[in-house]
Amino acid sequence: MRILEWVCGAIEKIINFIIIVCLMMMTVVIFYQVVLRYVFNSSNIWAEEFARYAFIWVVLLGAASALRRFQHIRIDFVVNMLPERGQKLIGFINYVLIVGFLLTLIKYGIAISMKTTHQISAGLHIPMSFMYLSIPIGAALMLLFTIQIILRDYLLPSDANSPALERE
After folding, report:
1. Distance in angstroms (rounded) separating the CA atoms of residues 124 and 121
2. What does this protein do (predicted)?
3. 87: Cβ–Cβ under 8 A, 6 or more apart, which residues?
């Protein structure tokens, strides 16, 4: 379990670094586009496309990082009224449903990526499969982090590592 925790922590650090780099590049490219448009009364075709695609990658990688840190929005006022055992059961069922959803995203994300390998984007001239790969990659990372949570909090809990009912 410690190895899985270490691997997931290392992957999350890499994800966060990629997110930071993408956000900085988006900021620079969007600033460049604004200057071109309003100062020089011109524009280019790749800047908007780059910002859009970088944003898609940021969202999907960020969703994985947020899942690992329990930072997704939760509506849990009804669940909090249940006894601890009921809360734990609902949490486990929730994560099992998340696994099913993520497996579906991976399956269909790979399928759409394979179908778009020969399509080229208009502005950046890159294969569209690169953009569609963000879906299965983001879902696979979320699946890894979900499996880590299930193992740590529900299947292999220890006294020091009780189920995560009250996360930040």
Report:
1. 6
2. Part of the tripartite ATP-independent periplasmic (TRAP) transport system.
3. 79, 80, 165
> In this model, does residue 26 exceed pLDDT 80?
yes
Q: Which residues contact 113 (CB under 8 A, 6 or more apart)?
A: 129, 132, 133, 135, 136
Q: Give 3-state DSSP helix, strand, coil % of the chain, rounded to 5.
A: 75, 0, 25
Q: State residue 105 phi and psi, 5-degree precision.
A: -60, -40
Task: Give the C-alpha distances (Å, rounded to integers) separating 152 from 13, 91, 155.
Answer: 19, 13, 7
Count CA within 13 A, CB hemisphere, residue 54. Answer: 20
Rounded CA-CA distance 158/160 in Å is 5
Distance separating alpha carbons of residues 23 and 19, to the nearest angstrom = 6
Rounded CA separation 12/162 (Å):
22
Question: What is the pLDDT, as a whole number, of residue 159?
Answer: 52
